[in-house]
Amino acid sequence: MDMRVMPGRLNGTVRAIPSKSQAHRALICAALADKPTHIECESESEDIAATVDCMSTLGASIQREPGGYTVDPLKREKKQDAVSLHCGESGSTFRFLLPIVGALGHNASYILKGRLSQRPLSPLYEELIRHGNELSPQGSSPFFASGQLVPGRYSLDNVVSSQFVSGLLFALPLLEGDSELHLNGKPESFPYIELTMVMLKKFGIQIGFDDTVFSIPGGQTYRSPGELRVEGDWSNAAFWLGAGALCAGADSITCTNLDLQSRQGDMAALEILARFGARVECNEKGDSSVTIYGGKLRGIEIDARDVPDLVPILAVVAALAGGTTVIRNAGRLRAKESDRLATVTDVLNGLGADVTETEDGLIIRGGAALKGGKVSSHGDHRIAMASAIAATTGAGPVVILGAEAVNKSYHNFFDDLRLLGGSAQLIET
Predict the structure, then answer these.
(1) What pTM does this model have?
(2) Which end of the chain is more exposed for a tag (fewer CB within 10 A), N or C?
(3) What is the layout of strands, in order, in the sheet containing 37-40?
(4) What residues form DSSP beta bridges with 364?
(5) Phi, psi of 208 (to 5 degrees)
(6) Residue 18, Cβ neighbours under 10 Å: how many?
(7) Residues near 162 by Cβ (< 8 Å), separated by ≥ 6?
(8) Is 309 a catalytic residue?
């Protein structure tokens, strides 16, 4: 579908949807647990649907209910000779399940859509083979995996994705013997590893960590807490927070349902927007919230190593700030649903901004007025959402081609845009 977004003021309050990152982790742990778990998670997305489908195929019973899921765990002792796991475009689903299924000893084919088969698997790939798995060549789809993962010493060099580490942390406690996981260098997006550790602890899994080494006792049992709630998603809320930084006068945007003690790395959006010059107000009472007011925005330097998902919306803010913004350590964005360094540049320059790609980042010379036009989502949910926020600030309407890409993580994005006063009109094609 294509969507026409009109320029106009955004103002008001929106509720952050549940965290996709936390929901993946909760559903996987619940499916591996000793008894049923109810997960409070009121929204859906294509990525979460992929994890639900895969864990159901592996033998869990996952019932969608108003406000969440009830997960009846799979039977670990029941081996499956061949399962077909449909991962969609979800990197978390594929990279988490690859070692988990190896630990369970199943043979599996992974069905991958979009650019997922092109996204890197090394060095996880080599370690799984070294510890008992047989795997298709990288880039294959379907991707076949077989064999029984064995405990021992695992080592990951130059980790380009925290998902590799998280996948092993889910899997290794299931093995009979003890394991160690050595990290040679700090992995990208380390806060996501911390998010995994927090969820594992909720399910009774004990893992030691000392600087670069995880100590993982084998033979552990995932023990259900009975109920848990998925907190609000800072990554998707960042689009509204960024829009708040672009507000004028007394207008502002408030996001509710955000945990101000969260371990989600993209909570860093608050500190970064404040450095741009936005005014940030946090309210920890009741349904904790954040309100963002605009200000005299100025260009800054951003290290995106731990917050790559923020780059599309931060680039929009930078395009409208005075001066130059430099974003560094974002090279891994080239292997996302799109090459996000290229697609952010394409969208913003198409709307009148001045953006230059570097090998691992962007140089954004801000201050130019944006215009209307036609842009592509490039099949990427975060590019579609960033385009919509940019469109509200321009001089004319913007048509976003392939706007349905938002469904990957935020099915109701355009509904919430309208809630804040935006005009988003579906174009029949």
Answers:
(1) 0.94
(2) C
(3) 61-65, 68-72, 37-40, 227-229
(4) 325, 355
(5) -90, 150
(6) 25
(7) 187, 188, 189, 190, 191, 192, 193, 196
(8) yes
Contacts with 261 (C-beta within 8 Å, 6 or more apart), sequence order: none
Report the b/e string of 229-248 with b at 16+ CB within 10 A: ebbbbbbbbbbbbbbbbbbe
Tell me whether the omega of the peptide bond preceding residue 18 falls within 30 degrees of 0, making it cis: no
Cβ distance 117 to 337 under 8 Å? Answer: no
Termini Cα distance of the chain: 7
- Measuring CA to CA, how many Å separate 301 from each of 272, 325, 326, 353? 9, 6, 5, 18
In the numeric block, the tokens 């990288």 are attached to 138
Condensed to tens digits (0 to 9), the pLDDT of residues 270-321 reads: 999 999 999 999 998 777 999 999 999 999 999 999 999 999 999 999 999 9
CA 86, chain centre distance (Å): 18
Catalytic residue among 47, 266, 309, 380: 309
CB atoms under 10 Å from CB of 194, counted, come to 16
Region 7-25 average pLDDT = 97
